[in-house]
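tl;dr need the bound structure. longer version: we got a ligand (manganese (II) ion) that a collaborator sent over and nobodys looked at where it sits. i said id run it. heres the input, straight from their email, havent touched it
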Amino acid sequence: MKMVNVRRYLRGSGRVLAFVFVASVIWLLFDMAALRMSISDVNSQLLKERVIREKEMMIKQQSRVTQLVMEGFKHPVQKVEQAVTHAWRKQKSNKLAQAYRRGGKEHEVNSNQKQVINKSVHANSRNNGDNPTKQDVRPKKEAVNLDLSEAVVHKTHRPPGVQINQNLLIKTARFAQNPVDGIDSKADQKVKGASAKNQTKASQLHVEEAHPAQTIAHQNPNKNVNRKEENMEAKRVGMSERTNVNVKKERLKPIVHLRAKENTRINSTAGRTAGVHKVLHLDMTQAPRDPKAVGQFGQAVLLPKSDDAVVKKRWDEGHFNVYLSDQIPVDRAIPDTRPESCAQNLVHDDLPSTSVIFCFVDEVWSTLLRSVHSVLNRSPPHLLKEIILVDDFSTKDYLKEPLDKYMSQFPKVRIIRLKERQGLIRARLAGAAVAKGEVLTFLDSHIECNVGWLEPLLERVYLDRRKVPCPVIEVISDKDMSYMLVDNFQRGIFKWPLVFSWSSVPEDVIKKNNMTISDPIKCPVMAGGLFSIDKKYFFELGTYDPGLDVWGGENMEISFKIWMCGGEIEIIPCSRVGHIFRGQNPYKFPKDRQKTVERNLARVAEVWLDEYKDIFYGHGYHHLLDKKVMDIGNLTEQIELRKRLKCKSFKWYLENVYPDFSTPLVKAEGLVFNRGLRKCLALQKGSLSFEVCNLNKQNQHFNYTWMRHIRQQGLCVEPQSKEHGFALLPCDNAKRELRWLHKISNVALAEHLIAEFSNHMCLEAEPRGVTVRLSPCEPNNIFQKWQFTHYSV
Ligand code: UDP
Ligand code: MN
């Protein structure tokens, strides 16, 4: 019976219906499979598509670049371009990557990276004084994450008054050398295979889902901008939700674990308990990216020789290649330079939101926009509370109404304008004062945030609100605008006299802690421009010293304050932001630049350095001690704050945060031996005489200090008027009469003690050995030659 029914059913039109039904089911199944794939693989497909585009671009551009270089292109930055281009042509060297892999960290090797630049170049723009400081040039073996070609050395600009000798070490990764076989061959095949099937789908998604509202807003700038922006926001959230679907699936198979200790939140702002998800890989664009656009994918651009004049003419607008920057899309793609494991890292679902604060003065239009777009496009919208642009009394017209108008497309962007020039410190504070996010993220106004930059920073604050995370600061070339990645294991440090510098984490620390290239790096001093900090904590710390002016030293101040008052500064290798390092500050200083920076540094030294401040002054800043020369302002509040917060000593900071820095408190110490008398200086009943040298006698022990004092306890040797010989007076840093030059570069007088206030007068042992006197300096007079037992410097 049943069979009959079925047969009847399958007869005639029934058969057609059944066929249609079965076909639809099969179609549906296929469709679902395709849909599932497209959802779960949104990120990776977008990435793959980008990789393919990048490769195509590289092939096309390389031939152009080579041609231009052959023509002998010259503009102010020729050396770097040539270096880059030459490096491209060099044979790849796998030595470093192999060495690294032998260390068992192969998974961390990032094959998608483009160029490596030694970070010592950064110090250029962060060197505060005019004292020569050699920057660390890291040995090649420490650049562990890449296959590198040979290093090319190049000297960067020197800011006026800053005698810095930097070696710019540009290395090019294998991807840049040979775009065709630059990618790991297996991965490459995978990409090719996947791309053939999915490329169309991926690009459709890219356009339809990520950007439609922006595209529309672009076409109809005057209509319903806000609604469209909301629409765009919704779409973006939609995308991140989809990514979350993906993440939830991933959670069922926990390949990556947060380490147990990191799962425990310390000092967190809220008592949330939440799940985790894989770091979101967002990279929105205004419109589909044009692979042929200038500087697309962070590539180096070599302009034709005929542009030299205009490049030069516009250079001073920002002290970088402004002419070129203006041609690069404001939302260009840049290579994802994170160590590979970063994309797999888990972060909490309920991270705090952040206000991103950009302060700027006369920033170049295109770089300001690129900075803002990089934040809008690469930050999870639910974490980005707002972007605050603080205009520090810029003079350029385009930064007024035109900027207001442009930014009105983006409801998250707020502009506040200062009524007079405050400098970056007080401008940041003005931004912080109105910020609504739980975390403040400060950025310079000529940066590009890379994919996945934000969550790893916020995660650290989430885990402990006293953590102050900084992204790895990568280099956007001031000349060719290429995006260059930097060596691993780099951290910010200071050298005397409070000069910021980069140096690599010591090998033994890396080994002892089993550090991988994606682990947070303890950072004694932040570079200054880019960091996140819990807002409440920032205010608890007393923010920056608002008495600091314009630029300089504020990174030292906030760093010492954070570390000494209970916080931590970290560099987070999974968060990467490119920054244009300029050879000079492109803006004017209301007062003399050097004086401004020196004054700031003196404030920092007085409040934070304890007995070490003498070392700061001793490195060419003695003149700052003269109140007539420099008024460093009132420090009462800062000193009070330090007391109130019960901050630790600078000695503690050096020993615990920067233990690899050895910095002797005195220049020389021990007995003071006179070569003529062959006896030692001794203090007897308040006056100076000589005794047979005896290390056990405390009255023969003196220090030669950074203040250039000859000092015993709190007493300093001071020449008096001729008849009265010498007195030992309470030491006073401001008194020039107490300073003695010793071991100066003049070889003939190297062993002499030259009274600084006098005109070539030297300390001389009176031949009877009763006392000392001041006489005109004579290079060969051995009664004027002195030797301390131990010299530290
Ligand atoms: N800035 C500011 N007011 C000033 C000086 C600087 O708003 O008086 C801004 C500047 O536009 C930039 C940030 O502060 O966005 C940091 O300055 P800069 O980039 O010159 O510092 P560097 O990167 O050289 O340390
Ligand atoms: Mn900057």
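gonna send this back to them w/ a short note. The pocket of manganese (II) ion (ligand 2) is lined by residues 444, 446, 529, 579 (CB under 6 Å).
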